[in-house]
Amino acid sequence: MEQKLELDHKKVELARETAGNIADQLHSWISDYTTTTIERAAARLLGIDGVDDAGVPLANIMVEKLQQAGRLESGLVPWLACAIKARDESPQKVAEGLSRGEFKVTDIPQASEETNREIADKLALEAATEIRSTRGKREQMMQVAAKPNKPLLYVIVATGSVYEDAVQARAAALQGADVVAVIRHTGQSLLDYVPYGPTTEGFGGTYATQENFRIVREALDEAGKETGRYIQLVNYASGLCMPEISVMGAVERLDMMLNDAMYGILFRDINMMRTFIDQHFSRMINAYAGILINTGEDNYLTTADAYEKGYTVVASQFINEQLALRSGLVEEQIGLGHAFEINPDMEDGLLMEIAQAQLSRDLFPRSPLKYMPPTKHITGDIFKTYLVNGMFNLVSVLTGQEIQLLGMPTEAIHTPYISDRYLSIANGQYIFNNARHLGEEIILKENGKIQARAAYLLDQACDMLQEIEKIGLESALEEGYFGDIKRPVKGGKGGDGVIKKDESYYNPFIDLFMNGSLSS
Amino acid sequence: MDVDYSQVKPYGDTLNDGAVQVSFTLPVPPGDEAKEAARQVALKMGLETPAVTEMADLKAGFSFFVVYGHCKHTVDYSAIKIPKREQEVMSFQEINDFVKDKLGRKVVVVAACTGSDAHTVGIDAIVNMKGYAGEYGLERYSEIEAYNLGSQVPNADLLAKAVELNADAVLVSQVVTQKNIHLENLTQLVELAEAEGLRDNVLLICGGPRITQELAIELGYDAGFGPGTLPNHVASYIVSELARRENIKE
Fold first, then answer.
1. Is A263 a catalytic residue?
2. Is residue B2 in a domain?
3. Which residues pair with A518 in a beta bridge?
4. Whole-structure pTM value
5. How many domains is chain B built from?
6. Hey, which end of chain B has fewer CB within 10 Å, N or C?
């Protein structure tokens, strides 16, 4: 792709290299730790599902009991392998028996490491094969489906009832949406477990549950069949259960996951170590399952000023990219995010938006960039909002964005009605079609306002990355570098779920997901 | 123009023409019958001579309509009375000076998004140092001690913090309004405050995109702030109201 901004290549390399160093600093300790949700994810991968009479997931019960018995330092897998052998039962049966109190963690005799690995590796390989076959199914379905135009039309549904979500998702798909995200219940990010079963009454969305994933997947597959297209399904692998939600998504063939490396720390006040450890394993699962991730840089500009702090988005994109690459994701799977949030009253604000959007494009040429609609300056004036969203759509098609989260005319009023979504899709379709090749026809003026703004953003991002490299990302987050939000290293929720691994720790999925096979 | 304020109706291009536009969706497939159904809906809304100017296929058995018509109803504008806050809006500097001169102590404000609401954009705009649209947030005021507890704070925790800090004012922001969850949550906060005997000791203030002064009063709050509110609007209210309650003459 033609580079429109005439960026200083040395600067770009420097930024990428610096972000790489920042990611390496984190990775100097990330693999020394596991977390309760990573171990629960391993349990789920090995087939443990369901809840007890009180609605507590069996994966949580097992991990809690192991933690109380001081066994989590070696991971869940070795103990589970011992239990499978000792009781001659499936993982699910072991989990059920343990939850009913039929036996205790300490009742299971230790087996040799080789025996454990043999049992665990066999089950892990089966699970991995299953995920690969789901991935294969997606690839095959996409192959035969009509190729969608870019930017993809991405809409959200958020009724609070999964059955109503399925109706709305299907309607959106039939209206032309390429991607449907089911908005998650606002409270879920802080739950240290994954709810079970279908959600019929949620606020601001439904829970991310495996059953909810399945229901909407089915609705979208039907709509896809009717229209000869493949409709992508999105949910949120974020909060306190990032890896577990990734597992569910891998099983139920979700296509995209909101999966940011720092979002939980900044916007949900989740413990820093917990998030960095969780995002790594969560992203490994997404990588292996062929799921495309969306990062959350757009959010910074809802709490910080989009014009003054535009460079923080760029810096974060570099960091998110480097962390994602270290979890096995390829560039084509890293849907870096950014947002259209400059105050619409600002003179030449559109030029500044074009600069920021084009900069993202030029810096990350292979990333399926996800562009987010204006929200911060949107009021109840639906007519103005519709126009602002049209400008956003124009910037998107002009600068080659790939995933367009469509702005809703009723943003700041209510979660979208069916007609709001229709009008947004019509807006996107009209502008994307009408201006399809505009970007190819336009050359940006040398050292003009747009090029100058982009160069300035890159400079600032570079400086910021170099500062972060010096003090470390943890300190940068403490000092409020991103989104003007300060988070203490030891603060936040979920810190008690971080566990230092000992030498006997074993989790076959790390090898499987990172290397495609087991090393031993 | 000779408007009769006791009988006001919408205006298009001629006084009392009642011209309005509405748009809505019906759960029926598009077609002549659907168009007629939309026209009848408009008639029942009180629109005379409705014209369906657009019918769009939303698929999956839904149709979308744009309708123009002439509203037959009138309202008595002259009889409307809306409760309003009457104090003047002061500037950042004026507010700090006012607190120093009239109150002679720091004003303590505790703020949060309570319940399941995770959207801090409103509370951050009012409280955080940076503020919004060029107006500094409450944290920046030298004479105000502001605490932003963030999102998803249980109502009980917000009140506990208010007691601990001996707060003068409690700000609660509600952005998510789906199925009126904000009303339930706001009501619960008032009830809790009353049950704990705190209600009369603090100014209870709510804010959010769907909050009005009228709604706030109805729910039992001292004040409510809607879209377009800036930090100094809230601060002006708090300090003036505190002065009023402490019987300090301006």
1. yes
2. no
3. none
4. 0.86
5. 2
6. N
